[in-house]
Design brief:
This is Zn-dependent hydrolase. The protein is α/β, with parallel strands linked by helices. The chain has 11 helices and 14 strands. A 7-stranded mixed beta sheet has the order 1-2-3-4-5-6-7. A 5-stranded mixed beta sheet has the order 8-9-10-11-12.
Length: 356
């Protein structure tokens, strides 16, 4: 546990839910934990007891990546953990593969097609998911990503070739998308079981991330917007190469600051915790420190995003981690550039660099 985690309260201690098991964390709200084949090796998913149009059942919140292992865990949950009741809807916080990957499969009732239900998601994340699943976007891989990162200082031919070879990264993890969906928007009220949940949209991590807050339950399902141990990845990718996602993310954090201090936060990664206000302040402090490092580096000499990566990330990175590190370094540079603190210049080598 890092020092910042000691400032938070973990009501379930060191408990971690085994795959295919569930743990009730509040009345009618169950924690599911699925593996991921990355350095970030798990995702938390949520099952909520529900009733729609007089039918008893469940709402699934987030789905895991498409893999036979996770499909198998879900099949076990469907058979043993739902009290003989069906899933009534699938709600996805945002379009990243670990959240959206199996949404279509779950909406269609799993391997045995037990039910057919609607996907609930924001417009922005539904549309980007459709584009990426169809192979029409790149972001974390493909030729577009390689060109984008080369423009920002990645010169290693092996790294660039690995990026090009990741062209099917997203579509392998999200192989299909529902052809219809129900739109979630900021401020929408969704009744799930005994509680009303308010949709809280956030920006910067994804196009239109939807967290859910229930005042009556005292619970925030925060998705990836507020995590207890790591900072949310905020990246500039090739699909929006001049974006300013970090400014959007920091602004979005303000939407959680009015929630009660004792709110139980159910994050997508890490353990459920209390200490929402403390964690928001920690995240703001973290980004202030990274921005200070970027300013200092750019004051010494013009810096590309590739130059900034080892300043912000002082460890060895694999190609998966490198894509997010590059995107995040560029997000910090872009915040200062859009704010007028930095000037962007393109060198004779075609690389974009930033200076005071």
């Amino acid at each position: 546990m890092n020092p910042l985690e000691h400032q938070l309260d973990y009501p379930f201690g060191d408990t971690l839910v085994e795959p295919a098991a569930t743990l009730e964390v509040a009345p009618g709200i169950y924690w599911v934990r699925m593996p991921l084949p990355f350095a970030l090796d798990h995702i938390n998913l949520w099952l909520l007891r529900d009733e729609i149009d007089g039918r008893q059942g469940w709402t699934v919140i987030d789905c895991g990546i498409a893999s036979d292992v996770i499909r198998g865990h879900w099949e076990s949950i469907f058979d043993t953990r739902l009290q003989g009741l069906p899933v009534l809807r699938t709600l996805v916080t945002h379009c990243h593969p670990d959240h959206l990957g199996l949404a279509d499969w779950i909406c269609n009732g799993g391997a045995r097609e037990r039910w057919k239900v609607r996907l609930w998601i924001s417009l922005g994340d539904y549309m980007l998911g459709r584009v990426m699943a169809a192979g029409d976007g790149s972001n974390a891989g493909g030729e577009g990503a390689a060109r984008h990162f080369a423009r920002h200082g990645v010169t290693d031919p092996e790294a660039l070739e690995k990026l090009r070879n990741r062209k099917d990264y997203y579509s392998n993890l999200v192989p299909s998308m529902p052809s219809q969906y129900r739109r979630l928007r900021e401020g929408d009220k969704v009744t799930i079981g005994a509680h009303e949940w308010r949709i809280v949209t956030g920006y910067g991590h994804s196009p239109e991330h939807c967290a859910l807050f229930s005042e009556s339950a005292g619970v925030l399902i925060s998705g990836d917007m507020v995590l207890p141990r790591i900072s949310t990845n905020v990246s500039v990718f090739d699909i929006e190469p001049e974006g300013d996602p970090l400014a959007l993310y920091l602004e979005s954090l303000g939407r959680y600051e009015s929630m009660p201090a004792d709110t139980l936060v159910l994050p997508s990664h890490g353990r459920p915790f209390r200490g929402l206000h403390t964690r928001i302040e920690q995240l703001r402090t973290h980004h202030d420190a990274r921005l200070a490092e970027v300013r200092e580096a750019c004051a010494r000499s013009p810096q590309s995003a590739a130059d900034i990566v080892p300043i912000m990330f002082r460890r060895q990175l694999d190609i998966h981690q490198m894509t997010f590190a590059m995107g995040e370094a560029l997000a910090h540079l872009h915040l200062l550039w859009h704010a007028g603190e930095l000037v962007r210049i393109q060198g004779a080598d075609g690389v974009m660099r930033f200076r005071l």
